[in-house]
Amino acid sequence: MRARPLGRLLTVALAALFLAASCSSDGDGAAERAPEDDRADERAAGDDPSGGHAPGHGHEPVDADAGADVAPVRGRGAGMGPQGRVPQFVIECPWSHSAPDDPIVHPGHPGRAHLHDFFGNTSTDAHSTTASLVAAGDTSCATKADTAAYWAPALLRDGEPVRPYTAIAYYRPGLGVDPATVQPFPEGLVVIAGDQTATTPQPLDVAAWHCGASPVLHSDPPSCPDTAPLAVRVVFPDCWDGEHLDSDDHQSHMAYSEDGTCPRSHPVPVPQLIFEVRYPVTGDPAGLALASGGVRSLHADFMQAWDQAGLEREVEVCLNGQRVCGVVSNRATG
Amino acid sequence: MTRGIRRALAGLLALGLLAGACSSDDDDGDTAADDEATEETPVATGATIRVPDDHDTIQAAVDAARPGDLVLIAPGVYEEAVDVTVENLTIRGLDRNEVILDGGFELENGLRVLADGVAIENMTARNYTTNGFFWTGVTGYRGSYLTAYRNGDYGVYAFDSVKGQLEHIYASGSPDAGIYIGQCYPCDAVISDVISEYNGLGYSGTNSGGNLLIVNSTFRHNRAGIVPNSGSYELCYPERETTIVGNVVYDNNQPDTPAIDVALLAMGNGILVAGGNRNVIERNLVFDHERTGIGLVPFPEEEANDLVPDPDTWDTPCAEVREEPLPDHPEDALALVLWDPQQNSVRGNVVSGSGVADLAFGSLQEDLAGLGNCFSGNTFETTAPNDLEALAPCDGAPTATDWTGGALDLLALMTAEQPPSVDYREAPTPEPLAQPNMPDAETAPPRPAIDVPFAVDLDAIAVPERPAGT
Which range marks the domain in which residue A244 is found? Predict the structure, then answer.
């Protein structure tokens, strides 16, 4: 049995039974909308896999209220569902540190970025390079070979940072991609997924909020029950142009596969990194924001600084070998 | 050559019927034969590769091995996390208590097996952040005479794997289960002659079953003893058709173990079926539990991926389910899914000393009889609800109908405070006593896991005698 935060489970279960299933509702009343409307929204917002990585990880201030009149969306993310269905390896990386640094967007300029939560490599700061990360070599991740740096904007509640307790990095073949063809990320790859400037819903298959292990994804934070606390999920592109480790917008050297195929412009299938951050947040989502702006400005950053041999081994035995090398479906929530 | 024939050939060779060369493989270098150890024509030499004589590390020896080989490990402490990707190996320690893989609370798995037919014998794995011994996605696995203690998730862990044997194992000090078989149907596996203690759960199996036997084993001093369970957070739900016979299950109330939250929830129960189905629980000796000796309870899953499948579909093999798209249920229906225990059979057990009830069955729904569980021929003092064997006999019509008297108070049980988990690195898990070695470790031929599970004569198993001193 996988660990679940079940200490008060039955209370919650009974409450849910007798008080109706309010725990999946969107914080702002979207649950009252008909399911068919939700699916329509999902199509509208989620079917264009290229729509969620618009360039512009800039540092202009974002008006958190802009776009607030655009209704939130929810739906089921493609490729989600019970773990154990697709090959994967999974890295759990507890929170390491927080800082207003961003070595991708603001290299060499400490304090210039919005507040970030860092996971993985414990040395990540504004001066980090993939080489320095590899050299530092220490990680918060359970897999010690994973010395990559992962970060995401800090979650704020009424303006105060909420410290996440952990992040989970899922490495999978892109949806429908032949696992045997997946190649390891090249050393030194740098990439940003999601759009920090977004004020309207991003595609749910790129950036979304959810409760626990639920497959139901939301553009805005839902109200989550005690047994399935709030989390965000950012899905990185799984196709590389085969040439560039970075690009001006930190995104265009990468692309999303479509129907299991990488585009000609980005022909190299690499693992699909699904980065999930879990927060000790349940109940009413009022007052939540991201340090990058509103709750729709979800994004995450990745500097590929694995021990390369370790990464290559995991890709080979788990993804190419088509095995489920681990699951963290419902591991203890800290 | 078909895969099956190749495997059979490899097995014959490995068993020494066709090959007598038991030397190191180091002398054959990069010959064509090496290249043939692939999908097309595996070469099963039955060679013996010694650690550290032939290779300094277990990983190097395993990587150099070819299907059918024996990797023989001398006593020592090996600070390694070993991946096994070569089929049909036998990996053996010369002394179970002195061949020790140590993760130092840094490494993840002692031995992670990603190839079919691999047997691991006669060694110890401790202090790994996840698992001591781990097979995933394989057909054919065997763990024999293994000791796994103080590991961060599971002691011995078989996931998404079929045709297995776990025997003569000692597992302790894990927050999840000492021994786990999950996500398989039919599993075609046997757990026998194991001792699992001081874990969160003695045994756990999520969404597993189908010719899955747990027999002649001891589960004691865990938070909870044997806990088959269901949930849509992993594939191949629900759990069904686990056969639990002839085990000694006692004193699973241990308050100072590491424990996942479910172990806290399940604490104080001997055999607890949490949303499992069609399990056969017979002739076990179960005693001294603060809650129930044998309990059938629901598992409520919030924010589920799927609903409980119709029982008519439970015969579908896991391999087929994997290919099916996830049903598109209304989201609100997934907010809370109740996995009720259904169609379990509890017969001929000897149960005593339970704080709540020796035999118990509860649900969050009213129609308990409709769930089809039955109880007959057990030796017991208390049940919840009262007269459980009269309410739900396995044979014949019920002779009682009042399900409310003495009903199991699930709410009280599941909301009670329990002693918190203790970090697995710091819990007072006893250092294992010296455990029995496998016979003839030095000379026994390799025996890859191509002949498992071993046959079990269930009918010959009687209720165990009470252990001395208990």
Answer: 9-16+23-46+72-320
